Amino acid sequence: MLQGIGHVVRAVPGEVVYRSPELFSGKLMFVKRGFIVKAMMSPLHEDPLLVSLSGPGALCGAYEDLYVKDRMPRRHWCATSAELLCVHSELLLRICDQNPEWQKELRGYAASCAVSDRLAMVINQTAGLEERSAVFVLLVGLSTESGFLDSIDNPGVEWLSIPALPSRTSASHVLGASREQLGVVLRRFLAEDAIRLRAGRWWVKKSAFMPYWERLRPLIESSSVAP
């Protein structure tokens, strides 16, 4: 629905695409390609309080104006090269006020972003690197693949599809680990056939990831904003 009123912006890895609070910073962005790191910043420290991701099909930028008014400073930057569809959030909200179908779609976007942020809290609070990495993979799937949640609950589906994973460099920033440490975990998942790479897509074996998913399920089921 954003195609008719937005304009495409291309950004490079490391580029900051949104910062708040900032005058005239009400850009709401739909991620068409790439991954965006979303960080909630501390007013007193440089290190983020919370880090999550937006991938293809998700929102970044001023999306928090849609469902939260905590006024915490935020910074969003490119984990990879990215293509973003930008609109002004106030314009979008005015249009949605007049169109029930747009309101419904916008609520879906906001709900997905809110769930992704709450899942990121779980990642930050999980102790072991293997578990953090597995939860991170599930978060990417939930953020980027429509129908991912339905596939998890479908007993006839054994392999979950994810279009792409961020680079190890990007993942290391999110998970607080070195590229080498993440490489060890990834090789272990591949050796155990818990993850496969086929035709440019990643495939996650559901039975291998169910213990990690069970950690996340209560958070999603208890969330009033779950999609």
Largest sheet: 4 strands, antiparallel
Radius of gyration: 17 Å
Structural class: alpha+beta
**Shape from CA axes?**
globular
End-to-end distance, in Å?
A: 18 Å
Low-confidence stretches: 222-227
- Total strand count, please? 11
Helical residue percent? 40-55%
Integer average pLDDT: 77
In order across it, which strands form the biggest sheet? 1-8-3-6
Number of helices: 7
SSE string, helix = H, strand = E? EEEEEEEEHHHHEHHEEH
Beta-strand portion reads 25-35%
Strand-helix topology:
Elements: E1 7-11, E2 16-20, E3 27-33, E4 36-41, E5 48-54, E6 59-61, E7 74-78, E8 82-88, H1 89-97, H2 100-125, H3 129-144, H4 148-153, E9 159-162, H5 168-175, H6 179-191, E10 195-198, E11 201-205, H7 206-222
Antiparallel strand pairs: 1-8, 2-7, 3-6, 3-8, 4-5, 4-7, 9-11, 10-11
Helix pairs in contact: 1-2, 2-3, 3-7
